[in-house]
Write a structure and sequence with these properties.
252 residues; alpha/beta; 6-stranded mixed sheet; 4-stranded antiparallel sheet; 9 helices
Length: 252
Amino acid sequence: MSDTILQAEHLKKVFTSGKKSFTAVDDVSFTVKQGECLGIVGESGSGKSTIAKMVTRLTDITEGTVTLLGQDITHAKGKELRKAWQKIQMVFQMPVESFDPRRTLGDGIGESLRNMGMNRQETGKKVEELLATCGLTPEFAKCYPHEVSGGQCQRAAIARALAVDPALLICDEATSALDVTVQKQVLELLIELKQKKNLSFLMICHDLALVQMFCERVLVLYQGRVMETGTPDEITNHPKTDYTKRLIDSVL
């Protein structure tokens, strides 16, 4: 079996409104291998989040293909798509908004387990294990999203993503809404998960420093196109394009 978890080839996304059309992603290709973290960096509006939505099939793909663990999921729908979602999970930028405010965190984390046929008692036990994995005590299962801090809520969101034992975790600006010390703690948790579970990651980010700490390879995106790709050190120390140089200068 190939060690390629995700393969995206010649992705294109065109949004159309009336007579106007806008190409948000233009001919983007990449792979993510087992246990690897690929970072996608670029300024706001460069198409990073659109790519995340395309590979998780939260938005339709105009052109190109997405292959997950050898299965073509480019046009997956219904049952086939739900099956794919067990292998690919997303952690969003705003953790509190990603939970239902009327339900407890434990309820949110356990939802996918119940959907898979796990009984109430088993689900409760598994939720506690997932919370512990993410550095939270069992009491957090009874809390509502608004009752915990942003960092705690993001840990709960990571626990929810891990519930289905995915092969790939997509972090869409998963630390950018948190303050610096909490950012570091959440990143340390992700690094630990990567090492312990041999998880693969796609990290959508505008912060090159974070990418340098966590990713083996980086894709630099500008106006929906790939400007260059390389290791974080290659990108930071030997940028090939003026855009990448500007991107680096803006954070250094």
